[in-house]
Amino acid sequence: MDLLSSSYFVLFLIVAIGFVIGNIKIKGISLDVSAVIFVALVFGHFGVSIPVDIQKIGLTLFIFTIGIQAGPGFFESFQKNGRQLIILAFVLISSASLITIGLAFAFNVDLNIAVGLLTGSLTSTPGLAAAIESTGSTLSSIGYGIAYPFGVIGVILFVRLYPKLVGVDINAEAKQLEDEDLKKHPELFNRNFVVENEKIVGKSIRELKVRAMTQANITRIMHEGKTIVPSPNTILHKNDIIKLIGTDQALEKAKILIGEETQEKIPLSIDYVVETILVTNKEVVNKTIGQLNVLSNYNARITRIRRAGIDIAPSSKSVIKFGDKLIVACGTGNINNVRHLFGNDLKKLSDTDFFPIATGIVLGVLVGKLKISFSDNFTFSLGLTGGVLMVALILSRIGKTGPILWTMSGTANQLLRQLGLLMFLSVVGTSAGSKLVETFQESGMLLFGIGIVITLIPMLITTLIGHYWLKMNLLNLLGALTGSMTSTPGLAAVDGMTDSNAQAIAYATVYPIAMVFLIICVQLISMI
C-alpha cells in the first residue's frame, strides 16, 4: 500500500490509533499516550519505518520543553532533594552494572555485547556511543538492539503498574506536593486595623518599616473618611483605618504593631482603583519591584503577585517574571501608565516566539557535541539529549537575555511537548519493532532475558529504596526513576497519569547525574 510508505501518513496514523487504544481502560488502568509506542512496534514489525530525523526532532522538542518548564524548579529541587536523587541514580546505575557483569560471566556472554545490553536496558543512546567508543567493537550495538525494546516497554509498564500494586493514589501524591508548595507560600488575607498604638502615631510608614517588621503590605488607608494610596512618606494618625495584605502570621504581627482589627470597610474613592495587571512587557522581566519604583513614579502599590497559581506577598526585592499577575492599587490617573509599564497584553502571553526555541535547541545540540577527554581511555560528552536538557534548564533559570525571553506559555509548552513526544515514540517504536522478532530468532531468549533482568531488577531495588527508605513522594520517585533509566518514554507514561509537573522536575534533575554515572560505568566495564 503506497500510503504506508509515506512517512507523514504513517506517523499520524500511528498517533491516531495510539490515542484510541490509550483511552481504553481495563480495571482503571490505561496506557494513555504510551499506547503510541506499542502501536508503533506492531507497524515496525510489518516493515513500516519512519525516518530517524523525525525521532531526533521529536526528542529535541520534548526534552527542550521539559527543560524550559522544569528549569525554575530544577535548582531548588536539587538543593532540597539532591542527596536523595544522587543516591537513587547511583543505586540504579551501579546495580545494573554489577548485574550485567555477573550475568555476563555466569552465561559466558562477550563483555562487548554485555555493555550493549546494559545501555539498551537503560535506553541510553549516549551510553551506547560511549560503549562503542570504549570497546571499539560494533558488538555493543547488537546487545543494545536486543535489550532496547524491553528497556522501553518495561519502564512504561513498571511506572504504570507500580502505583496500583502498592495502592498509592497518584492524585493524592500530587495534592500533597501542592500542599507543600502552599506551605512555602501561605495563603494571603486582607484585614483592616485601627491605629491605636500611640508609639506609631505621627510617624511615617518609612520610619515604622511596616513591611520589614511584619511581612505584610499596607494597601489602603482611610484618614478622616477619605481613602488614600499609601506611600513611604504617609503619616499615620490616631484612628486611621489601615488595610493590609499578608499571611495569618504577618497580620498577627501587624495587629500588635498597629492596633485592633476592625470590620469597618475602606471604600474605594472615585479616583482610586484596584486592578489585576498581566506582565507581558519584556523590559520589566527579571527586574525587582524596587528597581521599577512604581510607588514613586506612579503612586501605585503592588499588593500581590500571582505566579503559577500561588499568591506571593511582594517586597521591594521581589523579581517580576513574564506572565505574572499583579494586583495593583493605584490612582485612576496613573492606571494606564502602570498597564503600559507591565504590558497587560493577553495576546502577547499566548503568542509563541520560535526564535528562543530554535536558538536554545541549536545551543543544546552544540553543547551535546562537546567532548571532554580525561585520559586516552576516558572521554565524556552530554550527547543530544543531555546537551539540549542542560541548556534548556540554564536558559529557563536565566529567564531573559536582552530582549530574548527564554520562556513559553503553558499552552505552547504543552503543545510542543506533546508533539515532540508523539514523533519520538512513533519512530522509536517502529525502529524497535522491526528488530523484535529477528532478535528472538538470531540471539535466542538468553540475551533478551538478560536484558529483561538488567531492566527490571535495578528498577525494583531503586524504587523500593526510594519508597520505603527515603520516603519519597511517588511522583518525585517515578520522575527520578525514569531519569535514572534515561527513559523519555517512561517519563511520558508518568506524565499521562497526572497534571503535576513534579515528575518532570525530578527527571530533569536526575537525568544528567545518571548519564554521567552510566558513561563512567560503561568505560570501567570495557576495561575489564
Q: What brief labels describe this structure?
A:
3 domains; four-stranded antiparallel beta sheet; alpha+beta; 528 residues; Alpha-Beta Plaits; 13 strands; Transporter; 20 helices
Describe this structure in words.
The protein is α+β, with helices and mostly antiparallel strands and 528 residues long. The chain folds into three domains: 50-177 and 363-526, no CATH class; 197-259, Regulator of K+ conductance, C-terminal domain (Alpha-Beta Plaits); 281-344, 2-Layer Sandwich (Alpha-Beta Plaits), CATH 3.30.70.1450. Helices cover 61% and strands 11% of the residues. It contains 20 helices and 13 strands. It has helices at residues 7-22, 35-45, 52-106, 111-121, 125-135, 139-166, 170-184, 205-208, 210-214, 248-258, 289-292, 294-298, 335-342, 346-350, 354-369, 383-398, 410-469, 474-484, 488-495, 502-525; strands at 189-194, 217-223, 226-228, 241-246, 261-262, 272-278, 301-307, 310-312, 325-331, 372-375, 378-380, 400-401, 404-405. Helix 3 (52-106) crosses helix 20 and helix 5 (125-135) packs antiparallel against helix 6. The protein is elongated. The two termini are 50 Å apart. 45% of the residues are buried. The model has no long low-confidence stretch (mean pLDDT 81).
Topology:
Layout: H1 7-22, H2 35-45, H3 52-106, H4 111-121, H5 125-135, H6 139-166, H7 170-184, E1 189-194, H8 205-208, H9 210-214, E2 217-223, E3 226-228, E4 241-246, H10 248-258, E5 261-262, E6 272-278, H11 289-292, H12 294-298, E7 301-307, E8 310-312, E9 325-331, H13 335-342, H14 346-350, H15 354-369, E10 372-375, E11 378-380, H16 383-398, E12 400-401, E13 404-405, H17 410-469, H18 474-484, H19 488-495, H20 502-525
Antiparallel strand pairs: 1-4, 1-5, 2-3, 2-4, 6-9, 7-8, 7-9, 10-11, 12-13
Helix pairs in contact: 1-2, 2-17, 3-4, 3-16, 3-17, 3-18, 3-20, 4-5, 4-6, 4-17, 5-6, 5-20, 6-17, 6-19, 15-16, 16-20, 17-18, 18-19, 18-20
